[in-house]
Amino acid sequence: MSLKIGDIAPDFTQESTAGEIRFHEWAGDDWVVLFSHPADFTPVCTTELGSTAKLQADFDQRGVKLVVVSVDPVEDHRTWINDINETQQTSVTFPILADADNKVSSLYDMIHPNEDETSTVRSVFIIDPEKKIRAMITYPKSVGRNFDEVLRVIDAMQLTDRRSVVCPANWQPGDDVIVAPSVSDPDVLQEKFPRGYTELRPYLRMTPDPEH
Ligand code: BEZ
Asked: What does pTM read for this prediction?
């Protein structure tokens, strides 16, 4: 069964570079980015984990934990982390799961046999504190992901959870947002959007980012 946005992220227990992880317990009340890569000691993956490690403080600031899925063993992960730290000038501190039995990769449908029969593709699951899957991104083996985009999506979802807005294409924090189509009561509009809004169409009402 393939996972969908809004589903509860499947729980699991798996070995990792930080010891055994019981996923839901480990996630606690934080957001989680659970992401897979094809294999240790491969070039694109090395740059991806390096880039993510450099953004660790940005994920911390948003209350987001990172955890990586890889089908290689813990000893390989540990050796490879040294390579990542050295070549990417960073320090990987998030856990990497040792998913040799494909427990997590199968639960999250991360092996796409027409891409590769045994290794995982580049999947990203963004999971909220209620353990709901809020976003999914899937890339092929040949293309590294943009982890600034992962942060942007988290910023957008956290803002839309707090305010009655939705975020337009290419939105960045501070840019104008769209008044949620569900809000129509004039009193509610006045209360929620004291700086007003511009009605380009009845369904397209632009307003300043309410948190900037
Ligand atoms: C890489 O991360 O560079 C990679 C992984 C699997 C196949 C090809 C490239």
From this structure: 0.96
Determine how many CB atoms are found less than 10 A away from the CB of residue 65: 17
Are 170 and 139 part of one and the same domain? no
| Tokens at 191, concatenated | 């209360």
Residue 1 has a pLDDT of 62
- Taking the centre of ligand 1 as the mean of its atom positions, its distance from the CA of residue 196, in whole angstroms, is 49
Say how far apart CA 202 and CA 183 lie, in whole Å. 11
pLDDT in tens, 82-125: 999 999 999 999 999 999 999 999 999 999 999 999 999 999 99
The answer to whether the beta carbons of residues 57 and 66 sit under 8 Å apart is no
Distance between CA 3 and CA 108 in Å, rounded? Answer: 7
Phi then psi dihedrals of residue 30, to 5 deg: -95, 165
Same domain, 89 and 183: no
Angstrom distance (rounded) from CA 130 to CA 112: 28
**Average pLDDT for residues 147-163, to the nearest whole number?**
98
DSSP string, 17-55: BTB-EEHHHHHTTSEEEEEE-S-TT-HHHHHHHHHHHHT
Give the residue, out of 35, 37, 40, 44, with the most ligand 1 atoms within 8 A of its beta carbon, to mutate for a pocket test: 44
- Report if residue 7 sits inside a domain: no
In whole angstroms, how far apart are CA 171 and each of 17, 77, 88, 147?
Answer: 35, 35, 29, 15
Query: Residue 168: which domain range?
Result: 163-207
Are the beta carbons of 185 and 192 closer than 8 angstroms? no
